[in-house]
């Protein structure tokens, strides 16, 4: 019987021009280096790079990713964004008519067929640009787990990379007081029926999480140990390699903002006082079997972000941290 490959580690990275120290929990060795790479993307005119298809997140539309599309093209990556408008998301209200919604056992199809069709159209458009190359899927937020549904349902053999940005991959834990599954069972379906994450030459899963804000509980003491905050949600966690560098992040004080964000985190992973990108907890954005990466100071959405004080996953200096997965 063939053995599954060992799960890749989790890396925690900061933007460029920093000194970082990598500690692997499997050994006591430490490696330090300074990264002085430029944040300016090189112009790459190669036509052999895999095209990328961007899958918008819940509530986002195609134009939210216009700047990211331009950045990727500067790196030489032809890019197509699935055509989604904000009003399209109201189509999901059809799920209210499904008894499975009220039972918490909702399935992606047919309620999300409209989205999957848009993704398929974008993939077909990217294939015309591919020139016999494979295609990368870049899923932001819910677009990441919807990409997994697409891979399961459409069986495309042309996809060689799924890179997710702030995606809540894991269903919320059962039996936690005050936690309601906002997906009404969709993430349970993905966990049970979609293919497991892999990191192989044929198909690579890369899951990127942001560490923008630590949440806080409404009442009681909070964890204050930064990356040491753990959530027991009965999910297996791969061996973790942590990058410990000088960072501008500090554990959140029990402010109103931290408590508000913490309640959002709790609905996703069952615990409030954890790090996340302001919307999705770090631990929920990683998958066993994938290459899991955490980026300090990264906000969840292009809406409400900027490239300096509140960069999101698609800001130029942040894209620089993960672009190599698309161009290699």
TrEMBL record:
<keyword id="KW-0378">Hydrolase</keyword>
<keyword id="KW-0653">Protein transport</keyword>
<dbReference type="InterPro" id="IPR029058">
    <property type="entry name" value="AB_hydrolase_fold"/>
</dbReference>
<feature type="region of interest" description="Disordered">
    <location>
        <begin position="30"/>
        <end position="53"/>
    </location>
</feature>
<dbReference type="GO" id="GO:0015031">
    <property type="term" value="P:protein transport"/>
</dbReference>
<protein>
    <recommendedName>
        <fullName>GPI inositol-deacylase</fullName>
        <ecNumber>3.1.-.-</ecNumber>
    </recommendedName>
</protein>
<feature type="domain" description="GPI inositol-deacylase PGAP1-like alpha/beta">
    <location>
        <begin position="119"/>
        <end position="174"/>
    </location>
</feature>
<dbReference type="InterPro" id="IPR012908">
    <property type="entry name" value="PGAP1-ab_dom-like"/>
</dbReference>
<dbReference type="GO" id="GO:0009507">
    <property type="term" value="C:chloroplast"/>
</dbReference>
<dbReference type="Pfam" id="PF07819">
    <property type="entry name" value="PGAP1"/>
</dbReference>
<comment type="similarity">
    <text>Belongs to the GPI inositol-deacylase family.</text>
</comment>
<feature type="compositionally biased region" description="Low complexity">
    <location>
        <begin position="30"/>
        <end position="48"/>
    </location>
</feature>
<keyword id="KW-0256">Endoplasmic reticulum</keyword>
<keyword id="KW-0813">Transport</keyword>
<comment type="function">
    <text>Involved in inositol deacylation of GPI-anchored proteins which plays important roles in the quality control and ER-associated degradation of GPI-anchored proteins.</text>
</comment>
<dbReference type="GO" id="GO:0016788">
    <property type="term" value="F:hydrolase activity, acting on ester bonds"/>
</dbReference>
<dbReference type="GO" id="GO:0005789">
    <property type="term" value="C:endoplasmic reticulum membrane"/>
</dbReference>
<keyword id="KW-0472">Membrane</keyword>
